[in-house]
Amino acid sequence: TTEFTIDGLKATVEGKEILKGLNLTMRGGEIHAIMGPNGTGKSTLASTIMGHPKYEVTEGAITLNGEDVLEMAVDERARAGIFLAMQYPSEITGVTNADFLRSAINARREEGSEISLIRFIRQMESKMKELEMNPEFMHRYLNEGFSGGEKKRNEILQMLLLEPSVVILDEIDSGLDIDALRIVAAGVNAMRSEDRSFLIITHYQRLLNYVKPDFVHVMMQGRIVKSGGPELAERLENDGYDWIKEELGIDD
Ligand code: ADP
Ligand code: MG
Ligand code: MG
């Protein structure tokens, strides 16, 4: 089982405070969804967890199974099993998808126990089939010229192959048509396990019809301001966020 905790997290971007004391605990087997208006700091939270150098933590703690995540370098966080499917995956010319994935897998393994090429290709082929991806994507440069939906599917391919213990999906559903959404959701559901937690950042309840969250959190102005079950996502979809602002006396 895993336990991932965020405690009183504050972070700045270019000197501006975006995360303003955020708390969240996720245990193995749990799926958490974070919803919130645009610009509220959801992607900042994701990048801060991963250790992106633009985001400076000024207060608070993040731990994974008791280990101090903030002490870890970016590659150590990945090795510890934290994974982010980015809202806007970057294109990397000159590095094929297969090369990228193979080195990402090997980075998580001990030296001397790297995955064999044959085994890697077999795994990649089978996961690509599950995601209904054209095999040619194996040899394409990473995300270069991929459509929005193809990029998202490719992020899920990485998740399936890396088998992380903390999975953060940042708007994985945006730009997906309903068929692609179903495929992506099936990939996520297949990965549900007692020793893995998911943090699903989304604007829409639609994805949550396919991937049932245990907890739904509302993020506003750099904090989680309300938590509940799946019914909270439905209410947000129907009524928006104003009622929460009123309830909490937030104005912006
Ligand atoms: P969300 O994902 O909830 O829509 P973001 O985390 O992307 O929100 O953005 C929160 C705020 O932080 C916004 O005001 C945004 O402009 C700012 N911000 C995020 N990343 C950067 C960055 N790299 N440089 C400057 N400002 C940033
Ligand atoms: Mg946004
Ligand atoms: Mg965002």
Q: How is this structure best described in words?
A:
The protein is α/β, with parallel strands linked by helices and 252 residues long. It has a domain at 3-90 and 166-248: 3-Layer(aba) Sandwich (Rossmann fold). Helices cover 36% and strands 29% of the residues. It is built from nine helices and twelve strands. The chain has helices at residues 42-50, 74-79, 97-107, 117-130, 148-162, 178-191, 206-210, 230-239, 242-248; strands at residues 3-13, 16-27, 31-35, 55-64, 67-68, 82-85, 92-96, 141-142, 166-170, 197-201, 215-220, 223-228. The strands form three sheets. Strands 6-9-10-3-11-12 form a six-stranded mixed β-sheet, with helices on both faces. A four-stranded antiparallel β-sheet has the order 2-1-4-5. Helix 5 (148-162) runs parallel beside helix 6 (178-191). The longest helix is centred in the middle third of the chain and has 15 residues, at 148-162. The model has no long low-confidence stretch (mean pLDDT 94). Residues 4-246 form the ABC transporter domain. This is Fe-S cluster assembly ATPase SufC. Pfam families: ABC_tran.
